[in-house]
Structure formats: C-alpha cells, structure tokens
Amino acid sequence: MVRDIVSALADLKEKEALKIVQERLSAGDDPLSILEDTKQAMGIIGKRFETREYFIPDLVYSGEILKEITKMVKLKLPKTAQDERPGKVIIGTVAGDIHDIGKNIVTFMLDINGFEVYDLGVDLPAQKFVEKIKETDANIVGLSGFLTLVFDSMKETIEAIKAAGLRDRVKIMVGGGLIDDEIRKYTGADAYGRDAIAAVSLARKWVGGK
Amino acid sequence: MTKTPEELYQERAKRVDDAIHLRIPDRIPIVPDAEFFPFKYAGITVEEGMYDYEKTYTAWKKTVTDFEWDEYIAPFTYSGSVLDYLDFKQLRWPGHGVKPTHPYQFVEPGQVLDGKEVYAPMSAEDYDWFLDDPSDYMVRAYFPKIAGALAPLAKLPPLHGIICYYQGVFESLSALGTPEVLGALESLSKASTEAFKWLNSFLGFIGRMAALGYPTFCLAVTHAPYDYIANFLRGTRGAMIDMYRNPEKILQSCEKITPWMIDAGVGGAKATGIPVVAIFLHKGFEGMMSEEQFRTFYWPTLRKVIMGLIDAGMTPFVFTEGDYTSRLKFIKDVPKGKVVYHIERDLFKAKEVLGDIACLTGGPPNSLLCTGTTEQVKAYCKKLIDVVGEGGGFILDPEAPLVDENPENVRVMTEFTKEYGVYRQ
Lengths: 210, 425
Fold this sequence. Notes:
heterodimer, A: alpha/beta, Methyltransferase, Methionine Synthase (B12-binding Domains), Chain A, domain 1, Rossmann fold, 2 domains, 5-stranded parallel beta sheet, 9 helices, B: alpha/beta, TIM Barrel, 6-stranded parallel beta sheet, 17 helices, about 55% helix, about 10% strand
C-alpha cells in the first residue's frame, strides 16, 4: 500500500517519500498541497523530538529529505504570510566563539515550528544583535556559545541591547554547552534553555500572550 | 621535615595511581585540565604562548606550582608557526580570526564562516577511496583541503605509483618536481622543522615539571573512531546523515581506523612513558544521537580502542563531553580498574553505575567557578567528595577544561579538596 507523504517523511523513509512526491507530481497534483503535507510531517517530527523518540540526527536527516522534496517540487517554500508566523527570533553565536552546531539545531527547530528566524552566524559583536533588532522588530533573541568566554560576551551583548533602549522590546534566551541558570543570572538574560526543545517552548511561551 | 621533589613526585603519583586502580588513596587527588587557564593567570596572551613556547611553559609552571595540583594534564598548546606554515584551515587561532587572548577553536569540515565554507568535508562518494587506500586519500585529498600550503598535493599521482622502478622513478617523481608541488614540500619541511622544535620544547617542560615533583597525568591522545570520521572527515552533519544513507560505509570506516586509533595512543604513551591516554568524546552524547545509534555506530569501535589500549598496558582516560547518563550502561562494559572516565553531568548517577568498575573524574561546573562564590564552590566540592569520593576511585577536576575561571575559586576548589578530601581509615 502506498502511504502518504506525511507518514513517509515523518518516519524518515527517504526513498518512499521521494517516490510518492514523484508520483503525485506526475499525476498533476498541486505542488502546494505537497508542501502542505511536508509541513505537517515536520510538525510530527518536531513532536517526536520533544518526546525523545527522535534525536538530532533524525532532525538533520529530515531536513535533508525535505531539501530533496523541495528541489523536486521546484518551488521555493512559499513565505508564510507574516501574520501567520508566531514570532521573529534573532539568533547567533556571541563574540569570541565560532561554535555553531547547537545554534544551527535550535535555528532549525524554531524554523519548523513556524518562527521567522534570523540566524546572524558566529563570533558576533553585540552591535550586530542591536542592529538586527532595530531592523526586524524581532521580539525574541537567542544567544549561543560553547566556551566559557561567552559568559562575558553574552553579558556585554545584553548590556548593549539595554543601552540601545531595546531591552524591554525583546525576551532573551541563552544556551550552549556550559550555560546554566547561574549564567542566565550573570548575563541578565530572561531564560536559559538546555536544548532545542527548551528553546522552542520558551519562544512559544513568550509569544503566547500575543 | 620538607619533602624532596622526588618524594613529592612519588607521593602524588601513588595518590593518582591508587585512585585509578580503585584503591583508597590518602586523599582525593586533584588533577585539573587547565587548558587555556594558565595564559590569563600568568598574564600572557594565548597568541604569545602559541608563538613562544617557553612563555607557555613558564605560565604552566607558575600555574601548577602555585596551586600545587597533584598532577596536570599536559598542555596541548599548538604551535602558531606550524599552523602558519601550513595555512591551516581546521583551526582559527589568535591573529587568524580569533582575538590574541582567546583560545584557538576548531573549524568543522563544511563549516561556514564569514559567509563561506572554510574547507569541504570528505564527500560520501569518497568513502570508497578512503576505505580502499586511506593513506593515499589523506595525502592527496585530505591534506590539500585542510592546509592551504598543501593544496598542490592534490595534483600528485596515486602514492602507490611512486618509486616503482622506471615508471616510478622518472614519471611519478617528476610529478613531485613541479614548482607548485615543490613549494608545498618546502612549506611542509618548514612546518615539520618547527613541529620538531615544538615537541622537544614540550617534552623538555614535562621533564622539568617532573624534576619539580609534578607527574604528568596524561599526554598521548587518541579518538573514538566515529568522532574521527565526524570531526575531521565528514563533519557532524555528514556523519549524521551517513547513519541513514551510508550506514555500511561509516561503520566500515570506523572499523578501518580502529587500529590506527589504538596505535596513535600506544605510540604516544610509549614515546613519553606516560601510560594514561586521553580520548575526548565529542559526538556520542545524548543530544547528538539516539541510544540505538550510540550502540550501533559509536560504542563498538570506541570499546575496541579502549580494549586495545588496555591490552597494550595503557590506561584509557575517556573524557565524556555532554550528558552521558543514558550511556552509562554501555560504557560500564570494560575491565575493572583499567579505565578512567571523566563525567560532566551527573557524577552521582555515574558513581552508582560505574563506581565499582572505573575511576571517575569530574567536579564543579565551570559556570560556578566563573561566577559563583567561594562558599558555593566549597559546598559543591563537599557533596562530590562525600558521595562520589566514597570508597576511592575519584579524582577531582572541573566539569570542563579551564579557560578563564576565577582564580580564587580554582584555589578554593584545590585547597578544599586537599583538606576535606582526606580518607580517614
């Protein structure tokens, strides 16, 4: 029995998923409905990650399959209308640190959960965050870092956001290998997230009232 | 009566040796991985230390002798000059994308920095080349990727063709004689000369510290085979995808390099006479893969490396990074009293599961050492000493290698352990 794209992708059956996409395209199906299905599947994958049925390699692989499907459908994922996105998140690795594996995973998780994510990259001076907040009017900022030196970089970044008069406009989360609640307090962030799941639930909580 | 350096050396070495072999020492040994801490502590930059080796070792000597640690993990401060000669891509170091005071940092295969990929990972298609003739792959494909100065080596003919009577001598060797390749060989020669100088300076330091009464805990390093593939060849992302798309290839590659990993550890340990071999684990913790993937892709060849080292008379020092709580049931499958495990998260649980099998190392979180009060540091160490130190088999060191923690907190951690960590038999 041929299964649908939703379950094939959610179960990470790459060949099967690609085959169904090909068949549906050949049958003249609306590419948009295929992309709708993939969105649903990514939602299921996110849930499975939250319940620890899936792990990071599963997420990474699902992203690869999704890339293949998108290529076949030959359309860029339509930009969801701004008002449908629950919120905008600016994310990046703070000054002095180039580690980005964790940050990339958080970016991916926020993205598949519907957030509009601006990933600024690594080793970012505080000013980059300030500028981006002004430019995008984002309401959430995620600061990432792996080395102990980022404790100070995070603190300085948050101070710079404060000095620019933007602190009240954003909620700030911090995360990374050695970050914990002590560091949350030290940096003046609003919350610390242990992993990508925590980042998503914090972001959801913060936009919940809107 | 004051003890001689020789007596202190013996006393410290015995203390650590007792802990490793699950005997009860006179007190809990303290052996921090000081990594980048000595630079700031001694008032030099990382950049200075990378280019002037004696400055590094003076900083280390000051640190180890000021704190009077029982042993120390050898300083793996790389030579900036060697990296310069090679135009090395796998690190960013002071003066090359990192501030003078900051630690050098690893660059992953395929990692994008400043908007572009720094160097490409090994492609999935190249697994076959790697498996068929790994040394040829390393010289002609890998070195050119990770070192700009060695890029011309990509133009060499296959290594198996070089020096093979007429054709080898005249045709293959002529490929080494092009201006480009000669340039690469010249850079290699400079880098090698410098690396030799660096190594001797390093070993000289180890000898001087021994004369002062401080044994080195470990010096040789090797890798978990999966980490070697993921860290250096395929990248984190590539290796993750391989577990689905190319499971056989990644498994075969891990098997292929397992003997290399054993040889690297044993060779390093034999050359220096220090039997503890470090294996820093990167890509097998809870966040990075599922338990099933750990059981399939990570642990079997890591265990072979551990067993290979033990069989050669060495002591593997397995430094877990990240949360290993769910992995404890796997990693307990090693011979009793032969392995040292560093545990970052939940040492208490680790003591329950591994306490009878292996010596544990670990300690206060670096966040606490950076921002906590001395009382908090003491309280944390007390709990560890009470619970994890119970019955021996525990060495105190911080959660992660030291970089720029508060020296006062490091002092308190050290002194409190020495005072409170005494075994009263």
